[in-house]
Write a structure and sequence with these properties.
The protein is mostly beta strands. 4% of the residues lie in helices and 42% in strands. It contains 4 helices and 34 strands.
Length: 479
């Protein structure tokens, strides 16, 4: 294990693995992000995947995991690991109550395991870290029952010790689950409902990605839907933007450059009960933010930047602080609305079990640095938490580090955040259904979940991918 160093991430210090001595560097000189022209590339829309077969109950899809080369930085070609050769990855549009079956064939030189993040699925389709699809021709079929309500899901590689690099090199996609509750509201839809995947990256001057585990100090190129600092043309009307933080470690605090209102309508597990009006939307790695921005307040011809407020004092603000540019290019009719009431969240059952989860990683700089949950590194053969099927539990999750932020992700279930640092959560995005929650150094959150639907072994872990790879992951068995 390589040594750690202390660096910044989103306004918080983070010790990370510095694997420069152990990981091969990409050939070529480092690309200086300051030399990349911003807002010269159009932000692409992620392609919507079409089923090859539909029945009365099920839609069937095929995907191939393969290398592809794309223009990410203007004028340069980058080799990526992708779903179907697409970057950004494809979108699957699913409906609650209707099954989706996806056959994944792995044409890459590395094993993979595809996890549908935020989904309520049987164990054999969860994409657990050791349930691998073999390299160079292996395949696996995943079945997603979609028995949960609407949600903003995404899929990514989860092969243990490989997920960090596989995701960094492009293996992410979007899965939008909808239902009648969402459809009837009259929110912006169709071409005005846009998934946006955000992340950071690092390149050589030939366009090759530079991957070093834990190193995002030099990942100072911000990508939106697979392009470095793109622009996106909009009409002077309301847009629904579904942001997913697909970065390995970077936190985003999204705001408009003029400080205008952003209306957050949803989070990981779908819509909030009511819109939350704010000027900044924060998402840690793995989290989603579903927002509405009304561009009718700007005259046609206006350009407005989406900025990132989570910039440390020692980071290049001109690079890390920029995300994408909106260009208001036309007027358009707008019949969409943002209702004052979006949904009724299910009542919280009475919890019968309380647990404590301690998240910690070594901050000494020693070459053997590891990361732990309750003092243990991940062991695929060890069951860390036994849960009775149908139980409702409260977990108190604590970040024991002095410098390192973490976040906490549970497979199988959506949970509710009850408290943060001893204070009840009564407003904002954490009042909704969540599967990933951030914790700054020293913070504690209290969450509640009900473990029903499927029995089996699932993981919970830090969703800063490198922390999970360093051991910050554990098994829970529902039986």
């Amino acid at each position: 294990m390589a040594a750690t160093s202390v660096i910044g991430t989103g306004g918080m210090l983070l010790p990370v693995v510095n694997a420069a001595a152990n990981e091969p560097r990409a050939a070529g000189a480092e690309l200086d992000p300051a030399g990349i022209a911003k807002f010269t590339q159009r932000m692409p829309l992620a392609p919507v995947l079409q089923p090859y077969l539909t029945t009365s109950t099920t839609s069937y899809y095929r995907m191939t995991l393969k290398e592809a080369s794309k223009e990410v930085v203007p004028g340069l070609t980058t080799k990526l690991r992708t779903f179907n050769g697409s970057f950004p990855g494809p979108v699957i549009k699913a409906e609650s109550g209707r099954r989706v079956v996806v056959k994944q064939t792995n044409a890459l030189d590395v094993p993979t395991s595809i996890h549908l993040h935020g989904a309520h699925v049987p164990q054999d389709s969860d994409g657990s870290p050791m349930d691998l699809i073999a390299a160079k021709g292996g395949s696996k079929t995943y079945t997603y029952p979609n028995t949960q309500p609407h949600a903003n899901l995404w899929f990514h590689d989860h092969a243990h010790h490989m997920e960090s690099e596989n995701v960094f090199r492009g293996m992410t996609g979007t899965y939008i689950l909808t239902d009648d509750t969402e459809r009837r509201l009259g929110l912006p839809s169709g071409s005005y409902d846009i998934p946006v995947s955000l992340r950071d990256a690092r390149f050589t001057d030939t366009g090759e990605l530079v991957y070093e585990m834990g190193d995002f100090r030099h990942r100072n190129v911000i990508l939106a839907n697979g392009k470095a600092w793109p622009y996106f043309e909009v009409a002077a009307r309301k847009y629904r933007l579904r942001f997913t933080n697909t970065a390995n470690q970077r936190f985003f605090g999204l705001s408009l450059a003029d400080g205008s209102e952003i209306v957050q309508i949803g989070t990981d597990g779908g819509l909030l009960s009511a819109p939350y009006r704010t000027d900044t939307v924060s998402i840690s790695p793995g989290e989603r933010a579903d927002v509405v921005i009304d561009f009718s307040r700007y005259p046609v011809g206006t350009t407005i930047e989406l900025r990132n407020k989570h910039v440390d004092r020692d980071e290049p603000a001109n690079e890390i602080g920029a995300v994408l540019q909106f260009r208001v290019t036309r007027s358009a009719r707008d019949d969409s609305v943002v209702p004052t009431q979006l949904r009724t969240l299910p009542p919280l059952p009475t919890a019968t079990v309380d647990r404590s989860i301690d998240m910690r990683m070594d901050e000494t700089g020693a070459p053997s640095s590891m990361a732990y949950i309750n003092g243990k590194t991940y062991d695929m053969n060890r069951i860390d938490t036994e849960i009775a099927y149908g139980a409702t539990e409260i977990w108190t999750v604590h970040n024991a580090n002095q410098y390192a932020p973490h976040n906490f992700h549970m497979h199988l279930v959506q949970f509710r955040v009850l408290e943060r640092n001893g204070q009840a959560v009564t407003e904002g995005p954490e009042t909704g259904l969540k599967d990933t929650v951030p914790l700054k150094p020293g913070e504690t959150v209290k969450i509640q979940a009900t473990f029903t639907g499927y029995r089996g072994t699932y993981v919970y872990h830090c969703h800063l991918f490198d922390h999970g790879a360093m051991g910050m992951m554990a098994n829970m068995r529902i039986s």
